[in-house]
Design goal:
The chain is of the alpha+beta class. The protein has three domains: 9-127, PAS domain (Beta-Lactamase, 2-Layer Sandwich); 149-294, 2-Layer Sandwich (Alpha-Beta Plaits), CATH 3.30.70.270; 305-451, Hypothetical protein af1432 (Orthogonal Bundle), CATH 1.10.3210. It has helices spanning 35-39, 51-57, 63-67, 112-117, 134-137, 149-159, 177-184, 186-203, 227-243, 267-304, 309-325, 330-342, 352-355, 363-370, 372-381, 390-395, 416-430, 442-451, and strands spanning 9-17, 23-31, 76-82, 87-95, 104-110, 120-124, 127-130, 167-174, 209-212, 217-222, 253-260.
Length: 462
Amino acid sequence: MEYQSKYDFYMKFKPIYNKEGKFSDYILTYVSNSFAEAVGINPELILDKKFSEIVLDIDILGFKEFYFNITPKSKIKYELYIKDLERWYLINSFTNMSNYEGELIIYYIDISDIKQNQQFLFSTENKIYYLKDRDKLLYKDKLTGLYNKNFFEEELSRLDTKRQLPISLIMGDINGLKLINDAFGHNMGDRALKKAADIMIDSFRDEDIISRVGGDEFIILLPMTTEETALEIVERVKKKCENNPLEYIKINISFGVATKTSIDEDIDKIYKKAEDRMYFNKLKESKQAKLSMINFLKHRLEKITYETKSHYDRLKELTTMMAEELNLSETEKEELRLLCEFHDIGKIGVSKNILQKEGKLNSEEWENVKRHSEIGYYIAKEIKDASSINELILIHHERWDGLGYPGLLKNDEIPLVARIFAIADAYDVMVNDRPLQSKMTKSGALIEIKKHSGRQFDPTLA
């Protein structure tokens, strides 16, 4: 073979199979003459050793990645910068099918000079893969950068051997992703998935295989790991999620763990056990996770708006008095109480700069503010205690004359509870100090409400 660089070399490995005929490892049987000069390692130190043994002693050639990715008859191409050698290599591995032994051959082609002049990574099957596309060849999930389901399934099959026992599987599912997508948009949902992926990458070990296998589901394959160790890692992930929120959203993941300890156990049943345990934990944790998220949102909302707890308390007092005067039912009283507490929860999805802006909002900013009732509607749908008032949150800024927002209702089409709340909310805003707005006297506020009777407010109530 004619080489373009004196630093090119190749290696041959013979596959080893166990008594049951299953692949278990490779043995290094040959290295090219250029190996010693290119790598600086005496071939005698590694010849006739198992791949798994070489990985423990030497990793400057990227052997660890090979060890966890190579299977008989597989073909892999990718580029690698070897820091110790200060060179870029195009690595091409394939099985030699011309002989009955099925040798694994790995070529290392020095592309350092090419890398300085060309931007493409390499080509395969007449297709050029650029550097940004490398993940496609490594079975990566485009959004998170984790491995995808196809890669996980191949690895699960390959690593399901006696020497990898115990094998632990961890199934994870993000709680409240639908709430995040509905309330804050799919872009925020994607960011939540990326945040979860980053936390897991930071928490698991290099040899663990983290894959995204569904919209909000992840699975982690941990070879040679006890269930006790897997559970400890899960707790580490949960703590990091708790301490590292994504802006105003806390990431919460439910996990299920199962471990294969005997070669006689079916790995598919271990997978199912991890999945079942995850769903069981999700049933227990999902409600609490949503409540925790809502409390976190409410706490943050108080920091970035002028909607304080005292404002909510005053509203409850005002609406309770009005409810008693109007002989409302207990159901309506409870709806008023919840509306006082959650009416502006959707403002968490509005930019802090807009909420705290001094001066008049422009049309685009005002449109963003008006979205808070829609965002609040989606948040309330996911809260069991507040789901009964989700539509009231959506329409609590409707006006009697139909000029409110979102502009769905007018006059007595607006539920009585929302009409009562509108008057109480406006009154409380007027009689209490706010930035850029001096408070009015109580009598002045009542005059202002009567002034807008039949336009903003229900004329009978006003």
